[in-house]
Amino acid sequence: MRPAALAAVVALAGCRPPAFPSARFPDTPMQLGDESDREQAIDQLWTLAPGDAREPLRREVADALARRIRDAVGDDQPFVAETLLFELCSLWRDDPRGVGRGLADHVALIRDLHAMFAKSGSLQPTV
Asked: Residues of the chain whose pLDDT is less than 50?
Protein backbone atom coordinates (compact mmCIF):
# COMPACT_ATOMS: atom_id res chain seq x y z
CA MET A 1 0.00 0.00 0.00
CA ARG A 2 2.75 2.37 0.62
CA PRO A 3 4.02 2.35 -2.96
CA ALA A 4 0.45 2.92 -4.17
CA ALA A 5 -0.01 5.84 -1.78
CA LEU A 6 3.30 7.33 -2.87
CA ALA A 7 2.32 6.95 -6.52
CA ALA A 8 -1.00 8.68 -5.82
CA VAL A 9 0.72 11.64 -4.10
CA VAL A 10 3.21 12.01 -6.96
CA ALA A 11 0.39 11.82 -9.51
CA LEU A 12 -1.65 14.46 -7.68
CA ALA A 13 1.33 16.75 -7.33
CA GLY A 14 1.90 16.56 -11.07
CA CYS A 15 -1.72 17.41 -11.82
CA ARG A 16 -1.76 20.93 -10.43
CA PRO A 17 -2.72 23.69 -12.86
CA PRO A 18 0.06 25.43 -14.71
CA ALA A 19 1.38 28.61 -13.17
CA PHE A 20 0.16 31.59 -15.12
CA PRO A 21 2.60 34.42 -15.64
CA SER A 22 1.72 37.38 -13.48
CA ALA A 23 0.40 40.41 -15.29
CA ARG A 24 2.98 43.07 -15.93
CA PHE A 25 2.18 46.63 -16.74
CA PRO A 26 4.76 49.12 -17.94
CA ASP A 27 5.37 52.17 -15.82
CA THR A 28 3.52 55.20 -17.02
CA PRO A 29 5.72 57.98 -18.29
CA MET A 30 6.54 60.64 -15.76
CA GLN A 31 4.00 63.47 -15.77
CA LEU A 32 5.76 66.52 -14.38
CA GLY A 33 2.45 68.35 -14.15
CA ASP A 34 1.49 65.80 -11.51
CA GLU A 35 2.71 66.86 -8.07
CA SER A 36 4.05 63.48 -6.96
CA ASP A 37 5.92 62.90 -10.24
CA ARG A 38 7.34 66.42 -10.08
CA GLU A 39 8.51 65.85 -6.50
CA GLN A 40 10.15 62.62 -7.61
CA ALA A 41 11.94 64.46 -10.43
CA ILE A 42 13.11 67.15 -8.00
CA ASP A 43 14.43 64.45 -5.67
CA GLN A 44 16.24 62.93 -8.63
CA LEU A 45 17.64 66.39 -9.46
CA TRP A 46 19.32 66.61 -6.07
CA THR A 47 21.03 63.26 -6.60
CA LEU A 48 22.85 64.63 -9.66
CA ALA A 49 26.19 66.32 -9.26
CA PRO A 50 26.05 70.13 -9.34
CA GLY A 51 26.77 71.61 -12.73
CA ASP A 52 25.65 71.05 -16.27
CA ALA A 53 24.45 67.49 -15.58
CA ARG A 54 21.44 68.92 -13.73
CA GLU A 55 20.35 71.37 -16.42
CA PRO A 56 18.20 69.16 -18.69
CA LEU A 57 16.15 67.78 -15.79
CA ARG A 58 15.99 71.16 -14.06
CA ARG A 59 14.75 72.74 -17.30
CA GLU A 60 12.00 70.10 -17.64
CA VAL A 61 10.87 70.59 -14.05
CA ALA A 62 10.99 74.39 -14.39
CA ASP A 63 8.88 74.25 -17.55
CA ALA A 64 6.32 72.02 -15.83
CA LEU A 65 6.21 74.35 -12.84
CA ALA A 66 5.78 77.35 -15.14
CA ARG A 67 2.81 75.64 -16.82
CA ARG A 68 1.26 74.90 -13.43
CA ILE A 69 1.82 78.51 -12.33
CA ARG A 70 0.11 79.78 -15.48
CA ASP A 71 -2.82 77.47 -14.76
CA ALA A 72 -3.01 78.73 -11.17
CA VAL A 73 -2.94 82.35 -12.32
CA GLY A 74 -5.61 81.63 -14.93
CA ASP A 75 -7.77 79.93 -12.29
CA ASP A 76 -7.24 82.88 -9.90
CA GLN A 77 -5.41 80.79 -7.29
CA PRO A 78 -2.73 83.18 -5.98
CA PHE A 79 -1.77 80.96 -3.03
CA VAL A 80 -1.11 78.02 -5.34
CA ALA A 81 0.88 80.29 -7.67
CA GLU A 82 2.89 81.55 -4.69
CA THR A 83 3.74 78.04 -3.52
CA LEU A 84 4.72 76.97 -7.03
CA LEU A 85 6.84 80.11 -7.48
CA PHE A 86 8.80 79.25 -4.34
CA GLU A 87 9.19 75.68 -5.61
CA LEU A 88 10.42 77.01 -8.97
CA CYS A 89 12.99 79.30 -7.37
CA SER A 90 14.18 76.54 -5.04
CA LEU A 91 15.44 74.59 -8.05
CA TRP A 92 18.49 76.88 -8.02
CA ARG A 93 19.12 76.99 -4.28
CA ASP A 94 22.44 75.15 -4.70
CA ASP A 95 23.36 77.13 -7.81
CA PRO A 96 22.43 80.80 -7.31
CA ARG A 97 24.65 81.91 -10.19
CA GLY A 98 22.58 79.90 -12.65
CA VAL A 99 19.16 81.22 -11.62
CA GLY A 100 19.19 84.04 -14.19
CA ARG A 101 20.05 81.70 -17.03
CA GLY A 102 17.60 79.10 -15.78
CA LEU A 103 14.65 81.46 -15.46
CA ALA A 104 15.33 83.40 -18.66
CA ASP A 105 12.65 81.45 -20.52
CA HIS A 106 10.10 82.38 -17.86
CA VAL A 107 10.63 86.16 -17.62
CA ALA A 108 7.15 86.94 -18.99
CA LEU A 109 5.57 84.66 -16.41
CA ILE A 110 7.56 86.27 -13.60
CA ARG A 111 6.46 89.73 -14.78
CA ASP A 112 2.84 88.53 -14.77
CA LEU A 113 3.30 87.24 -11.24
CA HIS A 114 4.84 90.56 -10.23
CA ALA A 115 1.77 92.38 -11.54
CA MET A 116 -0.61 89.91 -9.90
CA PHE A 117 1.06 90.14 -6.50
CA ALA A 118 1.35 93.93 -6.79
CA LYS A 119 -2.44 94.12 -6.74
CA SER A 120 -2.63 92.36 -3.41
CA GLY A 121 0.56 93.86 -2.01
CA SER A 122 1.99 90.44 -1.18
CA LEU A 123 5.17 88.95 -2.51
CA GLN A 124 5.77 91.78 -4.97
CA PRO A 125 9.24 92.58 -3.59
CA THR A 126 10.12 88.89 -3.60
CA VAL A 127 9.11 88.42 -7.21
From this structure: none
